[in-house]
């Protein structure tokens, strides 16, 4: 049913921020052999049995992101490492065929089904890139044994899926729906599709039907009895896969309703969500709630949101989902990548005090983690906590949920910069590089998202339709072919051009970054909430950073008198610099993703800036 597809043949390469992030994660995390060994070892000896933890999720999460990264980079060393890890993992199945970090005595409790979901997702991800047919047979057989054991004990008339976890009404367990459908697609075994149907019929939660509520579309996600953002979105990733198999329009509508509701009420200026720790809470309004100083915008939420939007982008071909992916990537996600190798300082909050000792021992031996877990919007610092922190190796090492999931986000962006449709190619993100399809090549030059021009040079001859995304923010969008203006029709947010392409044809796109100011929303619980302003430049949220500007002051803003100028890279700091004019005031700002990178007060940051009352005279 998908209208758009990722090119999985490895025939594209780019440069720029997206390429840099994917390769940094590959070299700094995904090629860490000690990390892979540590994560497979968790399945020996029921590592989560004593605290009902989620250590069993890390291997599958990291494997999925690593396989997505391999699809982009085609790095032979990475592939060999992943194959070895998969072979090691296959040895960890118990006599019942289970891959679990819970013992038989305490299985189907806590986060057990959730972690088994990620085992399936990890195997499924490697299965897709596996070059060894014998190994693929072993993986498929092991996945079936793993899922068959679950189905033996869970289902209608057995243990209900939502009773397998006492947290979040079991939505974490219900999210196993996605790999169940995917395994059905591989095997065609109706037992798996029937089990998927059972999960959907169960409603996803113990006392609340998540899927029917989304279909009815009467309340927003922040009003659900279960508001845990990451797990809810994971359930809808599965519902989309279920729809694609069954064709039940109700579930397509429910999925699109849910995502639209999240866009309307939850997504922040940085493309994150969940401004009350990790829960939906009407984040679009609450992102300027000054009375809350807790954690927000979990990286797990950001990446899962991007993946959920990707599924609907493929399904519908609607560019609004590419808009959302881009906003999340260039702001919340890339801001969470630990580009400076920073470590959590003494102000970092750990759930247990002794976790600090575990963290310090780990850092000395293995070095800092690749991803931060939470992103501030009002004045604050990065590195405030390690999401999903779980001690390992006799308390000498650790991993966390956001650390393990981040690679899936950094790999997704370059993999879908250009996609393929039935009639041609679809440009979602304008990245300098080369895209090849057979003998046909497109060479792209772009200074986006810091500049406004894109050039696509054709090599070869082919009659293909080319779709060019018009970003949601751009007021101007002109297209020329060989320096001649062309007319085009807009379809689902794309400019559609269909013609006979000849060697050396050149497409030029010019758009504008629409510098603009956003204001906080009116909040009856916090009158100062609306007295905040944020500045956008194209898809980029801008931020103050203590390394280059004063943080914590007040500004006066006139909506019709705001200017933003891109200056270029800072002379000594790894950040892009913007000069922002608000009335007669001038501020030096950076893109949100570059702010706060020391994870301390030395780079204290601020995206939503306190403003003077609206009735005050603009300076």
Secondary-structure map:
Blueprint (H helix, E strand, L loop, with lengths): L3 E2 L6 E3 L2 H14 L2 H9 L15 H17 L2 H15 L21 H18 L3 H21 L17 H4 L2 H11 L2 H13 L7 H7 L12 H18 L2 H17 L17 H4 L12 H18 L2 H18 L18 H12 L23 E3 L4 E3 L1 H15 L2 E4 L2 E4 L5 E5 L2 E7 L6 E7 L2 E8 L7 E5 L2 E2 L3 E3 L2 E8 L4 E6 L4 E4 L12 E6 L2 E6 L16 E8 L6 E7 L2 E7 L13 E2 L2 E2 L9
Parallel strand pairs: 6-10
Antiparallel strand pairs: 1-5, 2-7, 3-4, 5-6, 7-8, 8-9, 9-15, 10-14, 11-12, 11-15, 13-14, 16-17, 17-18, 17-23, 18-21, 18-22, 19-20, 20-21
Helix pairs in contact: 1-3, 1-17, 2-4, 3-4, 3-5, 3-17, 5-6, 5-8, 8-9, 8-11, 10-12, 11-12, 11-14, 14-15, 14-17, 15-17
Rg (CA only): 24 Å
Q: What is the number of strand segments?
A: 23
Count of helical stretches:
17
- Whole-number average pLDDT? 95
Give the biggest beta sheet.
Answer: 8 strands, antiparallel
Overall SS class? alpha+beta
Q: Which stretches of 5+ consecutive residues score pLDDT under 50?
A: 615-619
Distance between the termini: 55 Å
Percent in strands: 15-25%
Question: Into which percent range does the helicity of residues fall?
Answer: 25-40%
Shape: globular
Provide a quick synopsis of the model:
By secondary structure, the protein is of the alpha+beta class. It has 17 helices and 23 strands.
């Amino acid at each position: 049913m998908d209208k758009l597809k990722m090119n999985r043949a490895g025939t594209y390469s780019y440069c720029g921020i997206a390429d840099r992030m994917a390769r940094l994660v590959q070299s700094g995390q995904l090629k860490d052999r000690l990390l892979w060994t540590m994560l497979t070892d968790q399945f020996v000896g029921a590592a989560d049995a004593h605290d009902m933890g989620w250590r069993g999720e890390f291997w599958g999460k990291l494997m999925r992101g690593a396989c997505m990264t391999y699809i982009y980079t085609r790095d032979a060393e990475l592939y060999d490492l992943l194959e070895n890890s998969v072979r090691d993992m296959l040895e960890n199945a118990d006599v019942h065929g289970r891959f679990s970090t819970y013992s038989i005595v305490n299985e189907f409790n806590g986060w057990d089904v959730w972690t088994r979901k990620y085992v399936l997702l990890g195997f499924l991800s490697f299965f897709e890139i596996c070059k060894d047919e014998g190994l693929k047979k072993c993986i498929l057989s092991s996945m079936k044994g793993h899922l068959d054991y679950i189905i033996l004990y869970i289902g209608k008339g057995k243990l209900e899926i939502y009773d397998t976890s006492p947290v979040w009404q079991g939505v974490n367990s219900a999210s196993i729906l996605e790999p169940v459908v995917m395994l059905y697609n591989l095997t065609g075994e109706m037992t798996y599709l029937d089990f998927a149907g059972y999960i959907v019929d169960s409603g996803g939660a113990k006392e609340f039907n998540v899927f029917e509520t989304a279909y009815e579309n009467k309340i927003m996600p922040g009003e659900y009895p279960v508001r845990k953002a990451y797990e809810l979105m994971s359930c809808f990733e599965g519902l989309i896969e279920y729809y694609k198999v069954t064709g039940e329009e109700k579930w397509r509508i429910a999925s699109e309703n849910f995502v639209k509701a999240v866009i309307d009420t939850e997504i922040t200026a940085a493309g994150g969500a969940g401004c009350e720790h990790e829960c939906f809470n009407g984040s679009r309004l609450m992102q300027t709630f000054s009375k809350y100083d807790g954690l927000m915008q979990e990286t797990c939420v950001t990446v899962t949101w991007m993946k959920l939007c990707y599924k609907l982008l493929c399904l519908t071909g609607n560019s609004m989902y590419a808009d959302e992916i881009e906003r999340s990537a260039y702001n919340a996600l890339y801001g969470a990548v630990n580009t400076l190798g920073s470590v959590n300082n003494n102000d970092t909050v750990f759930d247990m005090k002794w976790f600090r000792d575990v963290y310090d021992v780990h850092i000395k031996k293995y070095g800092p983690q690749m991803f931060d877990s939470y992103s501030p919007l009002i004045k604050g610092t990065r590195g405030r906590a390690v999401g999903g922190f779980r001690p390992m190796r006799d308390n000498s090492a650790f991993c966390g949920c956001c650390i393990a999931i981040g690679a899936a986000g950094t790999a997704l962006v370059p993999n879908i910069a250009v996609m393929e449709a039935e009639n041609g190619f679809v440009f979602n993100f304008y990245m300098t590089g080369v895209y090849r399809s057979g003998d046909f090549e497109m060479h792209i030059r772009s200074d986006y998202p810091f500049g406004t021009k894109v050039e696509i040079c054709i090599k070869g001859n082919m009659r293909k339709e080319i779709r060019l995304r018009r970003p949601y923010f751009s007021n101007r969008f002109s297209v020329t072919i060989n320096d001649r203006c062309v007319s085009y029709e807009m379809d689902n947010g794309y400019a559609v051009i269909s013609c006979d392409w000849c060697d050396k044809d050149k497409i030029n796109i010019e758009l504008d970054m629409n510098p603009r100011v956003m204001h906080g929303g009116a909040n009856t619980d916090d009158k100062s909430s609306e007295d905040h302003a944020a500045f956008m430049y194209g898809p980029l949220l801008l931020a103050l950073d203590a390394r280059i500007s004063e943080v914590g002051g007040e500004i006066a803003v006139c909506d019709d008198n705001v200017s933003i100028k891109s200056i270029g890279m800072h002379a000594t700091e790894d950040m892009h610099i913007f000069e922002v004019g608000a009335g007669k005031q001038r501020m030096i700002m950076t893109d949100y993703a570059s702010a706060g990178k020391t994870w301390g007060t030395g780079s204290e940051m601020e995206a939503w800036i306190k403003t003077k009352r609206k009735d005050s005279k603009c300076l």
